[in-house]
Amino acid sequence: MSSNSEKDDSQSDASESSSINDNVENDEKDSGPETPPPLPNKRRKVIPFEKIYLDNLPQSEAYERSYMHRDPIKFVLVARNTHFIVTASIDGHIKFWKKKAIGVEFVKHFRVHLGTIVDMSINNPLGSLLATISDDKSLKIFRYHQFST
Q: Alpha helix locations (H) across the chain?
Protein backbone atom coordinates (compact mmCIF):
# COMPACT_ATOMS: atom_id res chain seq x y z
CA MET A 1 0.00 0.00 0.00
CA SER A 2 2.81 2.30 0.60
CA SER A 3 3.79 2.12 -3.04
CA ASN A 4 0.26 3.13 -4.08
CA SER A 5 0.28 6.10 -1.76
CA GLU A 6 3.70 7.14 -3.10
CA LYS A 7 2.36 6.94 -6.67
CA ASP A 8 -0.66 9.03 -5.71
CA ASP A 9 1.60 11.64 -4.08
CA SER A 10 3.88 11.81 -7.11
CA GLN A 11 0.89 12.10 -9.46
CA SER A 12 -0.62 14.91 -7.38
CA ASP A 13 2.75 16.73 -7.37
CA ALA A 14 2.98 16.37 -11.14
CA SER A 15 -0.56 17.61 -11.65
CA GLU A 16 0.05 20.62 -9.37
CA SER A 17 3.20 21.62 -11.26
CA SER A 18 1.44 21.26 -14.61
CA SER A 19 -1.50 23.37 -13.38
CA ILE A 20 0.95 26.06 -12.18
CA ASN A 21 2.60 26.08 -15.63
CA ASP A 22 -0.84 26.30 -17.26
CA ASN A 23 -1.76 29.25 -15.00
CA VAL A 24 1.43 31.10 -15.95
CA GLU A 25 0.70 30.59 -19.65
CA ASN A 26 -2.94 31.62 -19.17
CA ASP A 27 -1.86 34.75 -17.27
CA GLU A 28 0.29 35.77 -20.21
CA LYS A 29 -2.61 35.21 -22.59
CA ASP A 30 -5.12 37.00 -20.31
CA SER A 31 -3.08 40.16 -19.85
CA GLY A 32 -5.42 42.03 -22.20
CA PRO A 33 -5.05 43.76 -25.52
CA GLU A 34 -2.00 45.74 -26.37
CA THR A 35 -2.17 49.47 -25.94
CA PRO A 36 -2.85 51.28 -29.19
CA PRO A 37 -0.02 53.22 -30.76
CA PRO A 38 0.08 56.91 -29.77
CA LEU A 39 -1.94 59.24 -31.96
CA PRO A 40 0.01 61.66 -34.11
CA ASN A 41 0.05 65.27 -32.88
CA LYS A 42 -2.73 67.36 -34.35
CA ARG A 43 -1.71 70.32 -36.38
CA ARG A 44 -2.86 73.63 -34.97
CA LYS A 45 -5.39 75.33 -37.19
CA VAL A 46 -4.01 78.58 -38.55
CA ILE A 47 -6.55 81.38 -38.63
CA PRO A 48 -6.22 83.92 -41.43
CA PHE A 49 -5.03 87.29 -40.07
CA GLU A 50 -4.34 85.74 -36.64
CA LYS A 51 -1.44 88.10 -35.93
CA ILE A 52 -3.61 91.13 -36.72
CA TYR A 53 -6.33 89.88 -34.35
CA LEU A 54 -3.83 89.31 -31.55
CA ASP A 55 -2.22 92.72 -32.07
CA ASN A 56 -5.62 94.43 -31.82
CA LEU A 57 -6.64 92.90 -28.49
CA PRO A 58 -7.29 95.67 -25.95
CA GLN A 59 -4.50 96.33 -23.47
CA SER A 60 -5.65 98.88 -20.94
CA GLU A 61 -6.55 99.10 -17.25
CA ALA A 62 -10.23 98.75 -18.08
CA TYR A 63 -9.61 95.10 -18.94
CA GLU A 64 -7.48 94.26 -15.93
CA ARG A 65 -10.43 93.85 -13.57
CA SER A 66 -13.43 91.71 -14.40
CA TYR A 67 -16.89 92.78 -13.35
CA MET A 68 -18.54 89.80 -14.99
CA HIS A 69 -20.96 87.44 -13.29
CA ARG A 70 -19.64 84.21 -11.82
CA ASP A 71 -22.66 82.17 -12.91
CA PRO A 72 -24.60 82.17 -16.18
CA ILE A 73 -26.61 85.32 -16.93
CA LYS A 74 -30.35 84.80 -17.07
CA PHE A 75 -31.64 88.32 -17.83
CA VAL A 76 -30.35 91.44 -19.58
CA LEU A 77 -32.57 94.54 -19.53
CA VAL A 78 -32.00 98.00 -20.98
CA ALA A 79 -33.62 101.22 -19.76
CA ARG A 80 -33.60 103.45 -22.82
CA ASN A 81 -34.22 106.78 -21.07
CA THR A 82 -31.62 106.40 -18.33
CA HIS A 83 -29.09 104.43 -20.41
CA PHE A 84 -28.77 101.75 -17.73
CA ILE A 85 -28.18 98.10 -18.52
CA VAL A 86 -29.09 95.56 -15.83
CA THR A 87 -27.85 91.96 -15.84
CA ALA A 88 -29.02 89.16 -13.55
CA SER A 89 -27.37 85.78 -13.05
CA ILE A 90 -28.95 82.56 -11.85
CA ASP A 91 -27.20 82.81 -8.46
CA GLY A 92 -29.31 85.84 -7.39
CA HIS A 93 -26.84 88.62 -8.27
CA ILE A 94 -27.70 91.70 -10.32
CA LYS A 95 -25.31 94.24 -11.79
CA PHE A 96 -26.02 97.74 -13.03
CA TRP A 97 -24.08 99.19 -15.96
CA LYS A 98 -24.22 102.69 -17.47
CA LYS A 99 -23.96 103.14 -21.24
CA LYS A 100 -21.43 105.84 -22.05
CA ALA A 101 -20.58 107.56 -25.33
CA ILE A 102 -17.81 105.00 -25.72
CA GLY A 103 -18.34 101.69 -23.97
CA VAL A 104 -20.14 100.62 -20.83
CA GLU A 105 -19.22 101.48 -17.23
CA PHE A 106 -19.88 99.22 -14.23
CA VAL A 107 -22.00 100.97 -11.56
CA LYS A 108 -23.33 98.65 -8.81
CA HIS A 109 -23.50 95.00 -7.78
CA PHE A 110 -26.08 93.48 -5.43
CA ARG A 111 -26.73 90.02 -4.04
CA VAL A 112 -30.49 90.45 -4.35
CA HIS A 113 -31.86 86.97 -3.65
CA LEU A 114 -30.58 83.81 -2.01
CA GLY A 115 -32.35 81.72 -4.65
CA THR A 116 -32.57 81.90 -8.43
CA ILE A 117 -34.05 85.03 -10.03
CA VAL A 118 -37.23 83.93 -11.79
CA ASP A 119 -38.12 87.21 -13.51
CA MET A 120 -36.95 90.80 -13.79
CA SER A 121 -38.60 93.91 -15.24
CA ILE A 122 -37.95 97.63 -15.79
CA ASN A 123 -40.82 100.14 -15.85
CA ASN A 124 -40.19 101.53 -19.33
CA PRO A 125 -40.67 104.26 -20.64
CA LEU A 126 -39.65 105.96 -17.38
CA GLY A 127 -36.92 103.44 -16.69
CA SER A 128 -36.37 104.37 -13.05
CA LEU A 129 -37.59 101.22 -11.24
CA LEU A 130 -36.40 97.63 -11.44
CA ALA A 131 -38.31 94.68 -9.97
CA THR A 132 -36.88 91.20 -9.40
CA ILE A 133 -38.73 88.06 -8.33
CA SER A 134 -37.02 84.98 -6.93
CA ASP A 135 -37.94 81.33 -6.48
CA ASP A 136 -37.81 82.00 -2.73
CA LYS A 137 -41.09 83.96 -3.28
CA SER A 138 -39.61 87.38 -2.59
CA LEU A 139 -39.92 90.59 -4.60
CA LYS A 140 -37.29 93.35 -4.57
CA ILE A 141 -37.72 96.81 -6.12
CA PHE A 142 -34.84 99.17 -6.91
CA ARG A 143 -34.93 102.87 -7.74
CA TYR A 144 -31.70 102.92 -9.70
CA HIS A 145 -31.80 106.27 -11.49
CA GLN A 146 -30.28 107.72 -8.29
CA PHE A 147 -27.11 105.64 -8.65
CA SER A 148 -24.12 107.86 -9.28
CA THR A 149 -21.58 106.85 -11.88
A: 2-29, 50-55
Contacts of 11 (CB under 8 A, 6+ apart): none
Calpha distance 96→120 (Å, rounded): 13
Strand-by-strand arrangement of the 84-89 sheet: 73-79, 84-89, 93-99, 104-111
Is the pTM higher than 0.70? Answer: no
What are 60-115's pLDDT values in tens digits? Answer: 665 555 668 888 888 998 887 888 889 998 889 999 898 888 888 888 898 999 98
Handedness of CA 103, 106, 107, 108 (dihedral sign): positive
Residue ranges per structural domain of the chain = 1-29, 67-146
- Nearest 5°: the CA angle 18, 23, 29 is 130
145 DSSP 8-state letter: G
